[in-house]
Amino acid sequence: MVTPHRILLDGGQTGTRVRITGGTTRDHLADPIHTDRPVVPQIAAAARESLGSLDVQVTQMAVGVSGLTPDATRPDELLAAVTDLGIDTVALAHDSVSAFLAANRFELGAVTASGTGVVTLGVGPAGTARVDGWGHMVGDAGSGYWIGRAGLDAALRAFDGRGPATVLEQAAVAEFGPLPELYMVVQAAADRVARIAAFARIVDDAARAGDAVAVHIDERAATELAGSVDAALARSGHGPDTAPRVSWMGNVLGHSTTIRARFVDLVEQSVPKVVVAPPHGDPLDGVGLLLDLPADHPLAEQVRRA
Fold it and tell me: Model pTM greater than 0.85?
């Protein structure tokens, strides 16, 4: 059996990861997919640029996109935009779906995809339930942006004398310059969401070094993420008699041992038979599984095909 060549795209707020499979596997990074503008033309442009002058016949495309809304999920339009590239099959889904598949494959349970933003997806006997993923302005609790913003808030409170002393004050100066200028610097930055989210790693470094304010921020983030998992499992039909698998994707739980340890403790305390385990694969592995998802799987209705 000849394995078809595929192009897989994991579109996020700070970049799009691309993988071309079949024969030699090639991975690279493309521009972000912005969901405040038409999504399909951006996906088609990323595919076209990624294939470039490669001497390969790609026939299948799978795409997971952060923040993808139902109205923007238009597989027929996407297929029409890439048919000239030789593509005859597309699968398009919210990145919570591809993240779930990357983390849990076809097992039932929940996944928290926590990077710059965050979304949690539960899959169970009652179907699927998406929790949060409401964007950095009104949601994404426990995300990299949420943590970074909390860290900057703590730094400014310390500077003002409204909050306890913290090493985050000087860390914010080192990262953004004098604090009286910080809000102007951030507002003027085209990549302000990514810059604030990047401060999350500094917050976590401070927490691991014992800074009490940073430790509290990490604990709050873990509590938010665990609460989203609890809600997703309950809404998707998991109860005392099920043994859901819970995992994660993204930098927050992937890189922060302090947040992850607290998150695991909280989930295990609240869900008696839960199995909390590391992800089976990476986000692009999950994107590829969009094309292989069994038709009778609860997630199948969340994947739009053409």
Answer: yes
